[in-house]
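Task: sequence in, structure out. Protein: Diguanylate cyclase/phosphodiesterase with PAS/PAC sensor(S).
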Amino acid sequence: AKDEGKGNYQFYSQEMTQKAMKRISMQSKLRNAIKNEVFDVYFQPQINAQTKEIIGLEALVRWIDENGNMIYPDEFIPFAEETGMIVELDRIVMKKALAQVMQWRNENIFTGSLSLNLAMKQLQKDDFELSISNLISSSKCPPEKIELEITESGLMQKPEESIAKLNRLKELGIKISIDDFGTGYSSLSYIKKLPISKIKIDKSFVVELPDNKDDISIVKAIIALASSLGLKTLAEGVETAQQLEFMLENGCHNIQGYYFAKPMSIEDTTRFLKNFHK
Ligand code: C2E
Ligand code: CA
Ligand code: CA
Ligand code: CA
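Result:
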C-alpha cells in the first residue's frame, strides 16, 4: 500500500509538471504572437431581424500559429485574461478591426457599427477610457459606430467604478452592450444603472429553440425585460429559419448567427458585404 501511494504521488506530480510546462510554453508562444501581432480579425454580421439589413459587424480574434494553423479564442482568451496579456491582445484586435472597418466605410461598402469584445481586465485598468478613446479617435471612426461588448461578470466586479467608466465612454457616443446575457450572476438592479443600449441573448438559450420550453420562457422574459427598459436585443447563435422566425415573432431586434453567416476573414466579409441582399 505504501508503494502504491508513492506511485500515485509520482503520477500526480508528473502530470502537474506537464501542466506547468504546457502553461509556460503557451505563455511564451502567446507573448511572441502578441509581439509579432500574428492575429487575424474575423467579422460576423449582425442583421436587423425585420429589415434584414446588416447593422453591424462583431470582431472576433483568430490566432495563426507558427505552422499556419488557426487557433480559436476559447483556447487562449481565458489564458490571456489570467495572465493580463489580454489588454495588449485586445489593443491589437481593436486597432486592426478599426482600420478595416474604416476602409470599408471609405469604400462605401459598410457604414454600420463595429462591435468589439472587451475583457473585464481592461475595464479594471485605470487608463481604460483613455486608451479606448485614443484608439478610436486616431482611427477616425465615429464613436457612435462603436459598440463595446461587455460580459456580466466583467461588470459585476467593482460595479460602481465600472458604471462611472462606462458613463464617460457613453458621453463620447460609444455604445455599450451586455454580452452573453443570462449566463452570469448579475443582479438585475444593476441593469438599470448601466449605460447600456443593448442586451445580447446568449446562444445557449437559442440553440434548442423552438423546442425547449424553458428556453422559450427565458428568451421571452429577456426580450420583455429589455423592451420595458428601452433596450435593444440581439440573439446570438441563430442557426435555423425557425429560430429566426421565433425571434421575429417575439420582437427581438437583431440577429447574429450561422443562419446568416459565420465569422469570416476580411476577404470573405468584403464579398459578403457586397453581395448580401435583403
Ligand atoms: P462571444 O463574444 O460570445 O462571440 C460569439 C461566439 O459565438 C463566437 O465564437 C462565434 O463564432 C460563435 N457563434 C456565432 N454564431 C454562432 C452560431 O450560430 N452557432 C454557434 N454554435 N456559434 C456561433 P468565437 O469566435 O470562437 O469566440 C469565442 C469567444 O471568445 C467570444 O464569445 C468572446 O467571448 C471571446 N473573444 C473572441 N474574440 C475576442 C477578442 O478579440 N477579445 C476578447 N476579449 N474576447 C474575444
Ligand atoms: Ca461578443
Ligand atoms: Ca456572446
Ligand atoms: Ca460567449
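Residues 179-180, 200, 202, 236 surround calcium ion (ligand 3) (CB under 6 Å).
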